[in-house]
Amino acid sequence: MAGSRREAVVAGAGIGGLTAALCLAQAGWSVAVHERSPVLEEFGAGLQLSPNATRILDRLGVVENLGGLALEPEALVVRRARDGGELARMALGPAALKRWRARYLVAHRGDLLRALLDRVALQPAIALTLDSAVRGFAKGPDGRLRIGMKRGPLSLETAADLLVGADGLRSAVRERLGLGGPKDLVFTGAVAWRALIDATRLPAALRRPDTNLWLGPRAHLVHYPLRGGAVVNAVLVVEDRRRDALDDDGWNNPGDPAVIGFEVSNWARPAAELIAAADDWRGWPLFDRPAAPHWSAGAVTLLGDAAHPMAPFLAQGAAQSIEDAAALAHCLLANDDIPTALGAYERARAPRAGRVQSEARRQAGFYHVRGAVALVRDMGLRLMGPDRLAARYDWLYGA
Length: 399
Ligand SMILES: Cc1cc2nc3c(=O)[nH]c(=O)nc-3n(C[C@H](O)[C@H](O)[C@H](O)COP(=O)(O)OP(=O)(O)OC[C@H]3O[C@@H](n4cnc5c(N)ncnc54)[C@H](O)[C@@H]3O)c2cc1C
What we know:
Elements: E1 7-11, H1 15-26, E2 30-34, E3 46-49, H2 51-59, H3 62-66, E4 75-80, E5 86-91, H4 93-100, E6 105-108, H5 109-121, E7 126-129, E8 133-139, E9 145-151, E10 154-160, E11 162-165, H6 172-176, E12 186-198, E13 211-216, E14 219-226, E15 231-239, E16 253-255, H7 257-263, H8 269-277, E17 281-288, E18 300-302, H9 317-334, H10 338-368, H11 371-391, H12 394-397
Parallel strand pairs: 1-2, 1-11, 2-7, 4-13, 11-18
Antiparallel strand pairs: 3-6, 4-5, 8-9, 9-10, 12-15, 12-17, 13-14, 14-15, 16-17
Helix pairs in contact: 1-5, 1-9, 2-9, 9-10
The chain binds flavin-adenine dinucleotide.
The site of flavin-adenine dinucleotide has 34 residues, from helix 1, strand 3, strand 8, strand 12 and helix 9.
């Protein structure tokens, strides 16, 4: 729309919310980002940033800002947990750039947030307010949205043309849209244990610049180096129905290294060694929810985990929120009428995000099988070869 800038409120300064703010500002919007937390904690651990995400982050200048903090793995290596036998190897690095026209990177979530915030700071059209939780919204008498916020003890209100709920798995905006609240989340039966390990505590083979995946019965382990190789990020996903002691809303449930080590006690030595080298494990129960029939109403929409939370087995939650952000801005540029633009956004995104959600669910079954089924899986992986393995990711990374 020519003339004055229209105003958007983005609820949530996570990866999706900050990327959306950058994309909307580029598309000519004024953006007020409201983040519930009083500080943007650099919590979390490593993130794989696949080419479908880095392509967009590159255009926004975020990859440049990440600089040496992002690492480009040379390969994805898949191993059988029991004996460490290599099942598959897919070249990344230059091969990923050539095949999918963008780089495959790994980075610490805190470093990615910092790189996004540095770009946000350069954008006068974006204002970020911390300690400001979006609570609700209604249409005002002038047809614009009235958005209610809670800042400490204060209840505040602001007007905007658009509200984007990028407020994560337990989205308040989603609940207000009538699309289900936190009580509708479904525990997947798996807990992700995450740790950052000082690389000097590990043998050279475990420090290689690869993304490693170990497949065990009812569990899998992913590890890769971060921050120029100074630390190794490890995620051990274990099927475990007991989550009574875990805070559902946190990345920060402490885990007992001895109990976590027991999970892999019959795994090949390098995997067990890696697990033993970590002394600070943080557990995250994994949740899912059924796909929503729609994500938008009037001038309100959702993005990222708020719209389509997904199991981390394809490493795509953040990547899909980044894709959402770019698609939302594109649709708002192409359509002056906001509800029309949001309809186009949903049509563009729902089938793809839904496919990623269901493929991620299927992947859990594939990773955690036991006995004869695992033998068939392992044989299939061995026979597949690197090119056919890479081709399986074309629909995802090449988009
Ligand atoms: C073990 C594990 C490994 C993963 N690995 C990968 C990976 O390798 N690659 C990948 O792409 N993805 C990965 N993911 C998924 C990824 O972390 C998430 O999908 C991604 O962070 C979602 O981003 P988001 O911006 O939608 O939500 P969030 O990151 O949850 O951000 C939401 C923000 O909104 C704020 N907020 C909440 N409520 C309100 C409110 N009412 N008002 C204002 N602010 C609010 C929150 O404080 C938060 O800052 C992984 C997830 C897990 C669990």
